[in-house]
Specification:
By secondary structure, this protein is of the alpha+beta class. The protein has six helices and nine strands, in the order αβαααββββαββαββ.
Length: 182
């Protein structure tokens, strides 16, 4: 029993994540007015009361309560006729489901406003009250961002013991919001 105890006694049961929003292009999609509004600078502006003196990125990171790391799967194709009477299946494309993040909504709705402005920048609707309104998508290089997600266990930051878990960091490149639900 002692020989296998260390192997099976520490399954990863914790789902603790730190999500870091590395928004390098936010000045484009958040807009100069909105960007100043959530600055979180060292000199508090009256607008900084909405984000409690923090940057909107920090507030989003704190209010991100759940992160689901995407799995992966292969799409396959069937090969018939390479060998008589045998059908073979081969992987031809690796696909990843979307990254799902869940947020608490703050009373000042900073997180919601940032996500809505991001989505509105991707596909702005001109003349919103006109029946002939149309939308035209912006270029992807203007709105795709980088998000870092770090997974850790309960014992990662505690006192050093016999064994201490490591941090695992994932970098998601070229991300943008695809679905915003209430």
């Amino acid at each position: 029993m002692k020989d296998i105890r260390d192997t099976v006694a520490r399954p990863s049961l914790d789902t603790f994540y730190q999500v870091t929003f590395s928004f390098g292009k936010a000045d484009r999609w958040l807009g100069s007015n909105g960007f100043r509004q959530f600055s979180g600078s060292s000199i508090p502006l009256p607008e900084d009361r909405r984000s409690q003196g923090r940057s909107y990125k920090d507030k989003m990171s704190i209010l991100c309560t759940e992160a689901e790391i995407p799995g992966t799967s292969f799409q396959t194709s069937l090969a018939v006729g390479h060998h008589q009477g045998i059908q073979e299946e081969f992987p031809n494309l690796r696909s990843f489901p979307p990254l799902n993040l869940t947020f608490y909504l703050d009373a000042d709705m900073v997180v919601l406003e940032v996500l809505e402005k991001w989505m509105t920048y991707i596909n702005p609707i001109s003349e919103k009250r006109n029946l002939n309104a149309y939308g035209r998508f912006n270029y992807p290089e203007d709105y795709k961002e980088i998000i870092h997600l770090t997974k850790f266990e309960r014992d990662t930051f505690g006192k050093p013991k016999e064994y201490q878990s490591r941090l695992t960091t994932y970098e998601f490149v070229n991300v943008w919001p695809t679905n915003l639900t209430s």
